[in-house]
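**Tokenised fold:**
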Amino acid sequence: MKIISKTFKLLSVFVLVLGLTACDDDDDNNGPTAQATTVVDVALANNLTSLAAALTVTGLVDDLEGTGPFTVFAPTNDAFTALLTATGLDLDNLTTDQEALVRNILLNHVIVGSTISSTDLVGLGSGYTNTMATGPNGANLSLYFNTGSGVVLNGQSTVTNADNTATNGTVHIVDTVIGLPTIATFATTNDALNTLESALNFADTGSPTVPWIDTVSDAAAGPFTVFAPTNDAFGNVLTELGLSGLGEGAGELNAATTDAVLLMHVVSGNIQSSGLPNGAVTTLGGVITADNTAFTLTDGLDREIGIVTALVDIQAINGVVHVVDTVIRPGSN
């Protein structure tokens, strides 16, 4: 739990503004006002011409020239070239849907409401915050960062040139475009969820009800709500069952049972913590009971599962993740 314990501390520090709206000239906190050196100017000063072109095509230049403040993770030209090559996108010939996609990808590099320095990030060590990109039901997507080896975002993009200051924020240059995260992104980037990742892979070695890795990695799948057990939760349930680990041998949790367990943690739909019902919840594997006051779940064996309140609403493009402290078991009394 060492890594995960720091998670979501950013949410108490950084206020995410959900939109940029014009206001009176005497309002110093909101609305587009003249800036001496904007985050867009900083990008251009660092020869980030591909980023500038993408911002222009998607109509985001005016937004990022507003008051902010903004924290922008700005991809290099090479990073944009790699994205365009991999996707076949042409910034000069985007369809309406493609333009919306590129716009959302760009917004996934922007945090509005605070200027976040590299020192801030290193001080926190790891955690989640929200970007301006949106997913199911218009929910803002989450961004996971860790600083064990540089500042790495969503496990894929590293800050190579930090703390380029503008009057309306700061720009950190990154070496890879930060793709829209899937549930798999968050299952594979946080070390405290390593066993969940192992369980998903192991269930796929049998005859899974759904192809787990492919499903949670598919941006077009779902959306799903996933109650994600920590490593400790998996360790505790193995002890509870008298099992030594995942495997097909005697005294191990086999792939078929692992599949059945995973199904108990997935609900159809994008249910954020504020929408958690009070009462029966139908998972893909059976019915559990939710208490939206105590923030607990109860499985069919009358076992109580705690939802880690500091680790809810980890939003992906194909669903939302809430971390739980106990594995939900299939079956009933």
Q: What stands out?
A: The first strand starts at residue 70 and ends at 75. Residues 4-180 form a domain with the FAS1 domain fold (CATH 2.30.180.10). Residues 1-32 have pLDDT under 50 and may be disordered.
